[in-house]
Amino acid sequence: MTTYLSTQWRLVASQPGLFATLAIMPLYSLVFYTTLRAQDRPDLAPIVALTTFGMSMWAHGMFVASNIVENDRREGVIQQGLLTPAAYQWSMVIRIIGTTALSLVALAEVVVIGVLLGFSTVPESVTLCVLVAMLLVLGTAGAALLVSALGVRVQAIRSLQNALTYPFYLLGGLILPADWLPEPVHWLTRIFFLSHGFRLLQDAAAGHVTDVTSRLAVLLLLVLAQLLVGACALAVVLRAARAGRVPLYG
Amino acid sequence: MTGTGGSMLAVRGLSRRFESRKAPRLALDDVTFDVARGEVLGLLGPNGAGKTTLVRIITTLLLPTSGGATVAGHDVVRDARAVRRTVGLLLGGERGLYSRLTARQNLRYWAALHGLDTRTGRRRVTELLEELGLSDRADEQVRTYSRGMLQRVHLARALLSRAELLIMDEPTNGMDPHAAAAFDDLVRRQRAEGTTVLLATHDMRQAQSLCDRVALIDGGRLRAIGAPDTLLTDAQLLRTVTARGFRAELTPAVRAIGGVLVQSDDDSELVARVTDGAALGALLNALVTVGINEISVTPPSLTELYRARISDRDFQLR
Ligand SMILES: Nc1ncnc2c1ncn2[C@@H]1O[C@H](COP(=O)(O)OP(=O)(O)O)[C@@H](O)[C@H]1O
Ligand SMILES: [Mg+2]
């Protein structure tokens, strides 16, 4: 496992572009914070901080997953990986979770920038916030695994990048509260770990959470389900590769 | 499993069809052969013959359309896991490694994939880098490597798990002669350790010098299989006689000898083929009589066998 992580870290480090999403984030937050100051709405600062974190976590996760797959295909590694499919799949899981977890740094960043600008962005219950953020990272990694499976199956996954971000910002309640969405998609937001977890994160930051245990339990279940779905999709696609239906070279 | 005897690899009636938009293509057509334990079998054939497809099926990367194969008694479709533990695979080409990682980093990753724990993996990687003469540059990014070095890293990866059956797909393609010869030595060492080797190549020199037996495959079909010497004898290929200091006016006399086929002649050199010993004797006699004694006789090689058996389609559009 450490070998997979260190390998992934070296690959990421050799392509600094992968940090783009995380690096741009503080800039976004600066813009938002400045606007808040101009509009004299410092009360919105915590929401801005969390939204910026949520969006960059999700975008970073999708970006990383499609990049890993594209890179592995370009290098001809997927084909080699099929000789040890279970291990290769596991290495993907570890690599994607590991890289997605880097977005936790982004959360710290936006909070600190907010504080430096004189806003009260430090969450009321820090422990709960960190816990929920970690669960969100895991869930995002699960979604990223699903994307990587898709990426193995079809070529040029990166062209789908936009389709993989904005709809999910909406569905996850990052931009607007999820219950403002039209009625027909409510059931989707209810089973989507992100909308569930993001609301919990906002409440934890504001310091008024009730039913912590049950909400955490539901989030944990949704996150595990998302991880499971992602890992299974990858397994299915790698198995399909054996039938010769998957483009292994790029 | 029964019926495989001492064979390491048994391929039975193997076919693979690729459905494409235009026309389905039969990449392998009813291929059957065995490879004994400890044997080195060469797989010879032109581009598109089906060598890589065969290699991919045997190593479980691809499913057959019909027929099957067993590796050490394990079925490549049903016991894929056991097969994967038994084979080491070297796929040809430049790719298959992370070009921005060093050889050591690449190999450690693959060692982990092969289930070696971190410590064992590190030890095994160092050992292989040493054995393959890569230690000096093991910590440089592989994208700076020459073709020969890259292929040694590929070989190191194939050897990580100490596989019983080593399968290599055109390992020396594009290598310079020195690198290729060094590569052959590495393969001989593996074989001396008892590893069974399946080697797809279109390097005749390599096939003739390394392989106990060769299989000629073309258009997805097995055309011939056997020890190079046996195949050559069976094929009744002709020996070639080359005489330096030849004079064109002697040609009619040479042509008159039965069993001699003149290939080319000019004022300095004659190249002719002889069908049997009698013709050879008569030709040599005739040449020596007119004072020509710089003569060489070349036995037929795999190259000629290959040319005789496999039609030249490189210039045909497919
Ligand atoms: N994935 C594939 N899809 C369609 N056709 C393929 C595929 N792989 C190989 N082929 C076809 O099968 C034939 C055999 O190819 P291959 O096994 O690569 O030959 P070789 O390795 O001997 O050059 C070729 O005609 C090739 O075009
Ligand atoms: Mg090939």
Automatic annotation (TrEMBL), chain A:
<keyword id="KW-0472">Membrane</keyword>
<keyword id="KW-1133">Transmembrane helix</keyword>
<dbReference type="InterPro" id="IPR013525">
    <property type="entry name" value="ABC2_TM"/>
</dbReference>
<feature type="transmembrane region" description="Helical">
    <location>
        <begin position="44"/>
        <end position="65"/>
    </location>
</feature>
<dbReference type="GO" id="GO:0140359">
    <property type="term" value="F:ABC-type transporter activity"/>
</dbReference>
<protein>
    <recommendedName>
        <fullName>ABC-2 type transporter transmembrane domain-containing protein</fullName>
    </recommendedName>
</protein>
<dbReference type="Pfam" id="PF01061">
    <property type="entry name" value="ABC2_membrane"/>
</dbReference>
<feature type="transmembrane region" description="Helical">
    <location>
        <begin position="164"/>
        <end position="181"/>
    </location>
</feature>
<feature type="transmembrane region" description="Helical">
    <location>
        <begin position="12"/>
        <end position="32"/>
    </location>
</feature>
<feature type="domain" description="ABC-2 type transporter transmembrane">
    <location>
        <begin position="18"/>
        <end position="202"/>
    </location>
</feature>
<feature type="transmembrane region" description="Helical">
    <location>
        <begin position="96"/>
        <end position="119"/>
    </location>
</feature>
<dbReference type="GO" id="GO:0016020">
    <property type="term" value="C:membrane"/>
</dbReference>
<feature type="transmembrane region" description="Helical">
    <location>
        <begin position="125"/>
        <end position="152"/>
    </location>
</feature>
<keyword id="KW-0812">Transmembrane</keyword>
<feature type="transmembrane region" description="Helical">
    <location>
        <begin position="216"/>
        <end position="238"/>
    </location>
</feature>
<dbReference type="InterPro" id="IPR051784">
    <property type="entry name" value="Nod_factor_ABC_transporter"/>
</dbReference>
From TrEMBL, chain B:
<keyword id="KW-0067">ATP-binding</keyword>
<dbReference type="GO" id="GO:0005886">
    <property type="term" value="C:plasma membrane"/>
</dbReference>
<dbReference type="GO" id="GO:0016887">
    <property type="term" value="F:ATP hydrolysis activity"/>
</dbReference>
<keyword id="KW-0046">Antibiotic resistance</keyword>
<keyword id="KW-0813">Transport</keyword>
<dbReference type="InterPro" id="IPR003593">
    <property type="entry name" value="AAA+_ATPase"/>
</dbReference>
<protein>
    <submittedName>
        <fullName>ABC transporter ATP-binding protein</fullName>
    </submittedName>
</protein>
<dbReference type="GO" id="GO:0046677">
    <property type="term" value="P:response to antibiotic"/>
</dbReference>
<dbReference type="GO" id="GO:0005524">
    <property type="term" value="F:ATP binding"/>
</dbReference>
<dbReference type="InterPro" id="IPR003439">
    <property type="entry name" value="ABC_transporter-like_ATP-bd"/>
</dbReference>
<feature type="domain" description="ABC transporter">
    <location>
        <begin position="9"/>
        <end position="244"/>
    </location>
</feature>
<dbReference type="InterPro" id="IPR050763">
    <property type="entry name" value="ABC_transporter_ATP-binding"/>
</dbReference>
<keyword id="KW-0547">Nucleotide-binding</keyword>
<dbReference type="InterPro" id="IPR027417">
    <property type="entry name" value="P-loop_NTPase"/>
</dbReference>
<dbReference type="Pfam" id="PF00005">
    <property type="entry name" value="ABC_tran"/>
</dbReference>
<comment type="similarity">
    <text>Belongs to the ABC transporter superfamily.</text>
</comment>
